[in-house]
Amino acid sequence: MLAGMRTVIAGGHGQIALRLERLLAGRGDQVVALIRRPEQAGEVRATGAEPVVCDLESASVEDVARHLANADAAVFAAGAGPGSGSERKDSVDRAAAVLFADATESAGVRRFLVISAMGADREPPEGTDPVFAAYLRAKGAADADVRSRTGLEWTILRPGRLTDDAGTGQVALSESTGRGDDDVAAVLVALLAEPGTAGRTLELVNGDTRVADAIKALVER
């Protein structure tokens, strides 16, 4: 996929999403950012993206699919966020992801990226904070749902520890990496442009390989 594509991002006011919107809009793409509250629109608009108020916890598949019309790709970057309880981990990190995938398929959009979490494939270890355990289970259930879909060219990206620091442009990207910092937005841009990563679940941490080279090495394996 080349510059000029139209991408719809769920969770458009999150920190990763804002960085992704800025990168995509900066290269000339059309970017639609789904947000929960009207007061978030200004910050989204400043990235060059078009803010659209759409609460995935209450919207229907048909509502969301309308926003995905004529899109080339969809990115699920939503999350219940810090301070939310176990119920919202399920309603956002699982149910909203499934709803967004349903809407993406309904709109006829094939390319679908998901920001997930390391450890989502395993039962949380004994002693894990109950809310964080609920988050991991919700992410794992959402990932399993997405992986089962033949109507989507999906890629699941599982970043290591997230920070607000500027990216380095150097990453480690593989099916299994260990943990660390990351350049999530830059990798998402590269994944959108590389259909050869469809059908893969990838872990991302800080590393010593340029993003473009990491993607190239991945698809050549």
What does this structure look like?
It contains 7 helices and 9 strands, in the order E-H-E-H-E-H-E-H-E-H-E-E-H-E-E-H. The protein is α/β, with parallel strands linked by helices and 221 residues long. The chain has a single domain, classed as NAD(P)-binding Rossmann-like Domain (Rossmann fold). Strands 3-2-1-4-5-6-8-7-9 form a 9-stranded mixed beta sheet, with helices on both faces. Helix 4 (86-106) packs parallel to helix 5 (130-147). The protein is globular.
How big is the Rg? 16 Å
Uncertain runs: 163-167
Domain count: 1
Q: What characteristic shape results from the CA principal axes? A: globular
Order of helices and strands: EHEHEHEHEHEEHEEH
Q: Roughly what percent helix?
A: 25-40%
CATH architecture: 3-Layer(aba) Sandwich
Q: What is the CATH class designation?
A: Alpha Beta
Residues in β-strands, percent: 15-25%
- What's the total helix number? 7
Average pLDDT across residues?
89
How many strand segments? 9
CATH homologous superfamily grouping: NAD(P)-binding Rossmann-like Domain
In short:
This protein is α/β, with parallel strands linked by helices and 221 residues long. Helices cover 37% and strands 20% of the residues.
Question: Secondary structure elements and their pairing?
Answer:
Elements: E1 6-10, H1 15-26, E2 30-35, H2 41-45, E3 50-53, H3 61-67, E4 73-76, H4 86-106, E5 111-115, H5 130-147, E6 153-159, E7 170-174, H6 184-192, E8 200-206, E9 209-210, H7 211-219
Parallel strand pairs: 1-2, 1-4, 2-3, 4-5, 5-6, 6-8
Antiparallel strand pairs: 7-8, 7-9
